[in-house]
From TrEMBL:
InterPro entries: AAA+_ATPase, ABC_transporter-like_ATP-bd, ABC_transporter-like_CS, ABC_transporter_ATP-bind, P-loop_NTPase. Belongs to the ABC transporter superfamily. It holds the Pfam family ABC_tran. It comes from the Bacteria. Coiled coil: none annotated. SMART domains: AAA. This is ABC transporter ATP-binding protein. GO terms for molecular function: ATP binding; ATP hydrolysis activity. Keywords: ATP-binding, Nucleotide-binding, Transport. Residues 27-252 form the ABC transporter domain.
Amino acid sequence: MTDTLPFSGLRPAPSSVAPPVPGGLSVTVSGARLTHGGAVLFSDLALTLEAGRITGLLGPSGVGKTTLLRVLAGLADPEPPTRVAAGDGLPLAGRIAYMAQQDLLLPWLSVLDNVLLGDRLRRKKPDAERLERAAALLRRVGLDGRERDRPAALSGGQRQRVALARTLMEDKPLVLMDEPFSALDALTRLRLQETAAETLAGRTVLMVTHDPLEALRIGDRLHVMTGRPATIGPPLEPPGHAPRRVDDPALLALQAELLRRLAG
Ligand SMILES: Nc1ncnc2c1ncn2[C@@H]1O[C@H](COP(=O)(O)OP(=O)(O)OP(=O)(O)O)[C@@H](O)[C@H]1O
């Protein structure tokens, strides 16, 4: 397909991108413990997601990043004394949008209906405003004109973009994303990072990624998870606001630091 997405990664960050809004939802995981077949994946693990900020989580393959994301989403079975708590003291159920590593698109639904899947699951017929929002999100991820296609007619990267649009459509205060841009070519990846940073501004986000530069472009606080049982290191906070320039020298220096931390 021809991509018409704007890309400003080599120009100053657009002024329309507001700094993260305080007052969102903070979330804390503490005392997290999980074992698989007797092997302790992590024990007494703690992570705080600051309100209205994008937290990036990096770490070697198999260290337990997805498992921790699933603990936050309420999809895993951690052991005591694991605690996941929202800053406002209310349950997290119903307030989470989760974008898994697999796109999980329903093959019998059109692209547009996949983006609107949350409404369908809530047995809510989307009104004109929801339909327009879904169409607008598909435009933003570069898939206008593909609304009526079935997922089977899309490439892996296009399917991942539909999954991203569906996640953004959910409009939840806590957004959990597991390698959301992994299937994309380099330029589309940079464009979609900008779309995500702009659309997610003010939300509390945990994004798992293997790409240090991606984490630095759109993350506000970056943690590295290493070891078995896994531990999570102190946050690294890149300066400025997302989406940051790819050629920012400060980012390149921090990239080296992240790689050092990943190497243990
Ligand atoms: N349901 C399961 N049963 C047994 N072991 C599991 C299960 N799910 C995950 N694991 C194991 O737990 C470990 C952590 O898996 P996880 O998917 O959380 O890692 P990850 O850091 O997200 O890896 P990647 O970067 O490759 O996605 C791996 O060794 C994996 O094999």
